[in-house]
């Protein structure tokens, strides 16, 4: 029985592991810059049709998420078109589900896109980072509104 449970846990962890399969030519959809130079900031959206969209930072990815119509050529018709939304955990550099991540706002760390949201898999890691780097607030994915992205982009 123990072997079965262990095998089930291992299989389920493999099913929910994510990859950041980019190369040196991969560009951020929003900023049009190469993403490979700053791996701690890379984000990705995989669509249900198999297309992969890469971003230079969580801010850029969430900007796209809130207004996919600005990039009409991608062909997003509804939220159901988003299969996986992935960010890189700032501490471990491992790809994680953005929908379950914690984002630090207002820290002294900036991404290639400027002021940004620093992603972490655990709230404790986000809180520790915020204390060390002057973070102002910690958000869950659904709490990151379009207005916050506009503020980070200097449009408010």
Descriptive keywords:
156 residues; alpha+beta; four-stranded antiparallel β-sheet; three-stranded antiparallel β-sheet; 4 helices; 7 strands; 26% helix; globular; disordered N terminus
How would you describe what is shown here?
The protein is of the alpha+beta class and 156 residues long. The chain has one domain. 26% of the residues lie in helices and 26% in strands. A hairpin with a 2-residue loop joins strand 5 and strand 6.
What is this entry, summarized?
The chain has helices at 2-15, 58-66, 123-132, 146-152, and strands at residues 43-47, 52-55, 82-88, 95-97, 102-111, 114-120, 137-140.
Strands ordered across the widest β-sheet: 2-1-3-4
Judged by helices, strands and strand pairing, the structural class is alpha+beta
Instruction: Describe the largest sheet.
Output: 4 strands, antiparallel
Helix content: 25-40%
Total count of strands = 7
Helix segment tally: 4
What is the total number of structural domains? Answer: 1
Strand residue content: 25-35%
Shape: globular
Write the layout of secondary structure elements.
Elements: H1 2-15, E1 43-47, E2 52-55, H2 58-66, E3 82-88, E4 95-97, E5 102-111, E6 114-120, H3 123-132, E7 137-140, H4 146-152
Antiparallel strand pairs: 1-2, 1-3, 3-4, 5-6, 5-7
């Amino acid at each position: 029985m123990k072997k079965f449970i262990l095998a089930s846990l291992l299989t389920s962890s493999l099913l929910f592991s994510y990859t950041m399969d980019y190369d040196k030519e991969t560009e951020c959809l929003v900023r049009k810059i190469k993403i490979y130079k700053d791996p701690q900031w890379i984000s990705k959206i995989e669509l249900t049709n198999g297309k992969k969209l890469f971003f230079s930072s969580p801010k850029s990815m969430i900007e796209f998420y809130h207004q996919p119509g600005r990039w009409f050529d991608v062909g997003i018709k509804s939220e159901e078109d988003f299969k996986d939304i992935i960010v890189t955990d700032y501490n471990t550099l491992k790809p994680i589900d953005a929908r379950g991540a914690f984002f630090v706002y207002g820290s002294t760390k900036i991404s290639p896109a400027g002021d940004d949201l620093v992603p972490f898999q655990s709230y404790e890691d986000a809180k520790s980072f915020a204390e060390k780097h002057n973070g102002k607030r910690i958000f869950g994915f659904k709490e990151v509104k379009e207005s916050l992205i506009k503020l980070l982009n200097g449009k408010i």
